[in-house]
Amino acid sequence: MFKADSKAARTSASKIGQAHELLDKLSQEYDKIIVYTISMYLSSQYSFFKTIENDFPKIVVVNSKSIAFLTVMQLLNFENKLKDVKSEEEFEALLVGLEKTDQYSVSLVPKYNNFLVKGGRLSPQAALLAKLLNIVPIIKFENGELKKEGKGRIFERVVTKVIQDKLSEDFNPNKNDVVLLHSNNLQINSFKNKLTKKYNVNCYVFNIPSVVAIHTGPEALVVIKMPKMNAHLVKKLKSINLIS
Q1: Pairing relationship of beta strands 59-61 and 33-35 according to DSSP bridges
Q2: Confidence category of residue 200, pLDDT binned at 50, 70, 90
Q3: pLDDT value of residue 221
Q4: Range(s) for CATH 3.30.1180.10 in the chain?
Q5: How far apart are CA 241 and CA 244, in angstroms?
Q6: What distance in Å separates the CA atoms of residue 85 and residue 102, rounded to the nearest whole number?
Q7: Angle 42-140-222 from CA coordinates, rounded to 5°
Q8: Which residue in 148, 151, 156 sits closest to 129, CA to CA?
Q9: Strand order in the sheet with 145-153
């Protein structure tokens, strides 16, 4: 299990040979191949596929600005709208829609700063000072990038404050949902129960994918305010065990 003292965990981009082999195979089977990676600003995978895009006339590498749950939502919405596409122009417009993520308000609260240091998101000096002073950073995910949002003290208090802030940002329970992402945080049910009881809103829980959790660190928690999901989408997400 991924823990605070884990040291061997790491990620890497696809191997060139394997990528070429897969794209060759898909090019023989399909008219269009959509490559949708983790945000273009956070992953070398995007740059890698852009460099070989011209070698495969059928592939389109989307300028992705999403990650984790946002990626799932973007692709499910894309799939749902694709069946109504009747022209190349409509298809191109649908691809552009995959780049749009400003409908989500996303804040990350890491519990262990050393994983941010490993990923180059925080300097070792800043991490040491934060540990000594018990400072917890708040990082927002905006337009595909990680940016400084604020800071606080004591992880639980910071998470509670972030939730309060999200629900005061013109939040409308008839138009918005709240999603909590986490990487094996044992307090997740407590946070969810307090949120739903206090604010009487829908709150869904989703795991941070392992390739992302390696960088956010174990027990990290993300709070998302997003447009309200329809019943069909919620049912589909639950049927594939992506939310609870």
Answers
A1: parallel
A2: confident
A3: 96
A4: 105-240
A5: 7
A6: 23
A7: 95
A8: 151
A9: 145-153, 135-142, 105-109, 221-227, 176-182, 203-207
For residues 1 and 53, give the distance between their C-alpha atoms in angstroms, rounded to a whole number.
36
89 backbone φψ class: left, alpha, beta (φ>0; ψ -120 to 50): alpha
Q: How far apart are the first and last CA of the chain?
A: 21
Rg (CA), the chain: 19
As a whole number of angstroms, the distance between CA 53 and CA 67 comes to 21
Neighbours of 206 (CB within 10 A): 19
Closest CA to 46 of 91, 14, 21: 14
The pTM score is 0.87
- Determine the Cα–Cα distance for residues 5 and 7; give it in Å rounded to an integer: 6
Topology of domain 16-98 in CATH is Rossmann fold (3.40.50)
Q: What is the pLDDT of residue 44?
A: 87
Give the whole-angstrom CA distance, residue 114 versus residue 125. 11
Q: Where in the chain is the domain with CATH 3.40.50.10170?
A: 16-98
Q: Average pLDDT for residues 173-193, to the nearest whole number? A: 94
The domain made up of 105-240 has a fold known as Hypothetical Protein Tm841; Chain: A;domain 3 (3.30.1180)
Give the phi and the psi of residue 206 in degrees, each rounded to 5: -140, 140
150 and 107 Cβ atoms separated by less than 8 Å: no
